[in-house]
Amino acid sequence: VVDIKLGKEIQNVFIAPNPIEVLIDRLRKRLFVSYNHLPSLKDSIGGIVMFDVENLKVLNSWRIQNKGLFLDDETGEIYFTSKDKIAKINPNNGKIDVVVSNTKSTEIWYSVAYDNKKKILLIGNAKNYTVEGEVIIFEYFNSNFNFVKSVSVGLNPTEIVIKQ
């Protein structure tokens, strides 16, 4: 933890090996940190830890392969990619739900974003990391996410930003 006014570290919080991404839910005063263990170890999968922002106490944690976290500001749900699917965590009850499954084993879903106002899910597909990637667009309708279209983008679409 760095105090930017003082310009120095004031606390060090151990999460797990390889923390890779941090999200802050300012409205609900929650901090989410994702981490990856070593892929070379079969039983090493990583996870997501939720903290109270004010006292940095752990509120909950989930051991799951993950990357590409996205916070739905409206609901506080966390969307993430996990191996062959997009899933979301409801931090209020700890439940993880699969949102969309990737049926193409040759494609690598690398990032995710959700526009709650338009009910549109955007997935960054890195494909095989050597060719142009794409953003796959799904629309939420009748309790399901339905494919709409895909748009070609550059290599490895790591981050998706929704402009309001």
**Fraction in helix:** under 10%
Give the distance, in angstroms, between the N- and C-terminal Cα atoms: 30 Å
**Could you name the ranges where pLDDT drops below 50 across 5 or more consecutive residues?**
none
Supply the number of helical segments: 0
Mean pLDDT: 90
Strand content: over 45%
Q: What's the story with the biggest beta sheet?
A: 4 strands, antiparallel
Query: Structural class, from helix and strand content?
Result: mainly beta
Number of E-state strands: 14
Radius of gyration: 17 Å
Strand order of the largest sheet: 3-4-5-6
**Shape estimate:** globular
The H-and-E topology, N to C, reads as EEEEEEEEEEEEEE
Please describe what this structure looks like.
- The protein is an all-beta fold and 164 residues long.
- The protein has strands spanning 2-3, 8-9, 19-25, 30-35, 47-52, 58-62, 67-71, 78-82, 85-90, 95-101, 109-115, 120-125, 134-141, 144-152.
- The strands form four sheets. Strands 3-4-5-6 form a four-stranded antiparallel sheet, with no helix packed on it. Strands 7-8-9-10 form a four-stranded antiparallel sheet, with no helix packed on it. It has a four-stranded antiparallel sheet with strand order 11-12-13-14, with no helix packed on it.
- A hairpin with an 8-residue loop joins strand 12 and strand 13.
- The mean pLDDT is 90.
